[in-house]
C-alpha cells in the first residue's frame, strides 16, 4: 500500500518558536512514516503583536471579532493556496475555534481534540492544565477533558496564572525556552504537591521548547512528573489526518 500526504497548511507565528517545532516535528514524523519523504506544507505566519492586541474579553464574544477574522483570513489564505488540511500552531486561538473555522471548507485539526485523545490513549485520569491566561481562565479546554472522564481540578491560582504569563513573555515567546525550563518545572512541582497523581498538560505550544525529551513521544516523565505536550499530540494528529493510503 502506497502512502502520500495531503498538503498541510499551518497558521503560525504565535509564537514563532512553536512554529519551528511544528515544521520540524511534521517533517521528522513524515520521514519516519515514509522514509525519505516529507509533507507538502505551507505556513501563514501572523504578527504576534497584532494577535495579542486583538484578544477580546472573556464573556464578550463581540470583542473577539477582529481576533477571529485574523485567524480565519489566515486559514482562507492556506485554503486558496491549495492546502487540503490545516491547523493553528497555538492553543489560545482554540478558545475561539468554532468561530474561527466558520466558513473554512478544508478540515482544521483541533489541538484540544488531539490532547484529549492522547490523554485517553495513555490512560491519564487526572491532569493539571498550564497555558496562557486565556487557556487557564477559560473552561473550553477543561470541559473537553472532563467530557472524556478526565479529572481536571481547579487548583491553579491567579498568582500562578500571572507567574506563568510572565515566564512566557520573558523566556518562551522570545525563543529562550531552555532558560525558562527550571522556573516552569518549579511551578509544576509546586502545583503537583496537592495532586501528586495528576499529569501536567503543557497547553501552550511554546512550552515544548524547554523539553527536548518530547522527541520520544507526547507523554514523558521529567523529574518524577508526567507531562503531556499538547503541541506534539497536535503534530501527530495533523500528520495522521494528512496521510493518504492508496
Automatic annotation (TrEMBL):
GO molecular function: amino-acid racemase activity
InterPro entries hit by this protein: Asp/Glu/hydantoin_racemase (IPR015942), Asp/Glu_race (IPR001920)
Gene3D superfamilies to which the protein is assigned, alphabetical: 3.40.50.1860
Assigned keywords, A-Z: Isomerase
Any one Pfam family match given in the protein's UniProt record, by short name: Asp_Glu_race
Signal peptide segment: none
Cited PANTHER family: ASPARTATE-GLUTAMATE RACEMASE FAMILY (PTHR21198:SF7), GLUTAMATE RACEMASE (PTHR21198)
Protein name: Aspartate racemase
Organism encoding this protein: Roseovarius tolerans
Upper classification of the organism: Bacteria, Pseudomonadati, Pseudomonadota, Alphaproteobacteria, Rhodobacterales
Amino acid at each position: 500500500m502506497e502512502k502520500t500526504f495531503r498538503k498541510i497548511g499551518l497558521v503560525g507565528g504565535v509564537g514563532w518558536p512553536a512554529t519551528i517545532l511544528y515544521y520540524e516535528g511534521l517533517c521528522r514524523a513524515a520521514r519516519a512514516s515514509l522514509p525519505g519523504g516529507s509533507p507538502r506544507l505551507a505556513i501563514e505566519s501572523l504578527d504576534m503583536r497584532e494577535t495579542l492586541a486583538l484578544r477580546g474579553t472573556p464573556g464578550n464574544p463581540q470583542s473577539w471579532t477582529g481576533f477571529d477574522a485574523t485567524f480565519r483570513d489566515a486559514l482562507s489564505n492556506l485554503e486558496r493556496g491549495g492546502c487540503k488540511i490545516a491547523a493553528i500552531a497555538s492553543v489560545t486561538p482554540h478558545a475561539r475555534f468554532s468561530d474561527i473555522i466558520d466558513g473554512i471548507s478544508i478540515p482544521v485539526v483541533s489541538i484540544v481534540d488531539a490532547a484529549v485523545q492522547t490523554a485517553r490513549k495513555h490512560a491519564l485520569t487526572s491532569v493539571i492544565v498550564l497555558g496562557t491566561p486565556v487557556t487557564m481562565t477559560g473552561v473550553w479546554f477543561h470541559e473537553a477533558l472532563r467530557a472524556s472522564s478526565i479529572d481536571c481540578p481547579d487548583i491553579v491560582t491567579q498568582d500562578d496564572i500571572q507567574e506563568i504569563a510572565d515566564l512566557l513573555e520573558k523566556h518562551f515567546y522570545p525563543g529562550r525556552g531552555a532558560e525558562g525550563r527550571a522556573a516552569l518545572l518549579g511551578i509544576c512541582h509546586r502545583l503537583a504537591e496537592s495532586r501528586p497523581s495528576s499529569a501536567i498538560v503543557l497547553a501552550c505550544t511554546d512550552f515544548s521548547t524547554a523539553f527536548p525529551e518530547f522527541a520520544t513521544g507526547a507523554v514523558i516523565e521529567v523529574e518524577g512528573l508526567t507531562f503531556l505536550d499538547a503541541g506534539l499530540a497536535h503534530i501527530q494528529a495533523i500528520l495522521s489526518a494528512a496521510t493518504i493510503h492508496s
